[in-house]
Amino acid sequence: MRPDEPLEHASAPRPPADRVMATSLCPSTLKGAGVTKRDWKIVNPGGSRRVVVTKDLPGERWLRFLTAADCRVEIAQGDDILAAPEIVAALGDRVDAAIGQLTEAWSADTLGALAAAGALIYSQFAVGYDNVDVAAATRLGLPVGNTPGVLTETTAEMAVALTFAAARRVTEGDRMMRAGAYHGWLPSMLLGNLLYRGTLGIVGAGRIGAAYARMMAEGHRMDLVYYDVRPNQELEASIADYAAFLVAHGERPVTCRRAEALPELLGASDVVSIHAALAAETRHLIGAPELAAMKEGAVLINASRGPLVDEAALVAHCRAHPRFRAGLDVYEREPVMAPGLSELDNVVLVPHLGSATTWTREGMATLAAANAAAILRGWPVWPPVAGREDVLPFLEEEKPPHAAPSIVNAVDLGLPQFAAGPPAGEDQQ
Ligand code: DGY
User: Rounded to two decimals, what is the model's pTM?
Assistant: First the structure.
């Protein structure tokens, strides 16, 4: 079924629930040449507001936010990534909101089509939004939603997992076992790096970078150097508290300092972990000169965005320096890898799994839907207090706040902020 098909075509035999779900059996007949044929799942076909969702999302709670806002939800089926012409065709001539993915290009043209079809919001199923032309959305008067607060520790844990997998050669050992190549314990087999009491360099000390830094400093007593345009006083204070705790227990304290420049951090660190946002000025932040500035046996971790690292330069560096190791969750041209990367033993590779836990992905779905539903209902924006992580009311409360959890251009659009609790007795889902 195509998403702009008349509503009555979407109907299927009614299930007992008040929320009606139907999976179309008809291929799309989308306008425009070269557009993929696709099935769409329609939820609540009688809803008066039309929301296009470009991938099925985990959990059920997100759908309750949308159906309670009287939305007919049209969900693209399939694992392939929707190209811009297909998205534009799916939006059609009338749509109220779209929930999209970080893998899609939400350019000025696509957002223009969204606004022209009457939509009030683009909501991204991700915290990062480098694939969205936010400036264009703002010019069009379109709020852009994202999903902060549910990925912080989850993504930091993946960075920790990659750090240890790379430093302690876990995937090499795994491959050896599966290949039947382990013939007995040897004194010098697969020797890795001890991280305990080493130095950790964080490039970008925002929410995820700071969470990772604390896990590594508090868990493994690593001294911290961070590089960020802004000082992170909260992180510095928490490391100082932890240092005082260590001293009180007769141990050597850990330290924390902000590097003036990136080379200073690169030269000092046993592990360098990248947590910066992708922007024109951070593209290839780590290239051949930066890799050369790192220690010979250092570990480089990237669980933020692939283009921050010049992947071809990384391949060349890892080839030339077998003691150097890298752990990657993200790639410069996802899902493609630079030639040679997958052949390197000193690199650990996972497919963009940073936020991939059930709790987090269901939470992201809930926040993406809550953003769309709230804007469609004319509700204000949850206060964008710096560092705010308090999205639990949207995830757990029976009557979550009458607000959009996170709109990245709320201030530029002059959207009203949430000030008071919800009206008593009214259900919001
Ligand atoms: C995000 O939300 O930006 C993450 O990359 C998803 O894992």
Answer: 0.90
∠ CA 133-136-138, nearest 5°, is 110
Tell me the pLDDT tens digit for each residue of 289-306: 999 999 999 999 999 999
Residue 128 CB less than 6 A away from ligand 1: yes
Q: How far is CA 27 from CA 45, 241, 349, 387, in A?
A: 18, 60, 36, 45
The CATH class that applies to domain 7-150+357-413 reads: alpha beta
What is the whole-number distance in angstroms between the Cα of residue 154 and the centre of ligand 1? 10
Between the CA of 182 and the centroid of ligand 1 the distance, in Å, is 37
Say whether 352 is catalytic: yes
pLDDT of 31 over the 50 cut: no
Tell me which of 3.20.20.70, 3.40.50.720, 3.40.47.10, 3.30.1330.60 is the CATH number of domain 152-349. 3.40.50.720
Of 125, 145, 132, nearest to 363 by C-alpha is 125
305 catalytic? Reply is yes
Cα 213 to Cα 273: distance, rounded to the nearest angstrom: 9
User: Catalytic site residue 257?
Assistant: no
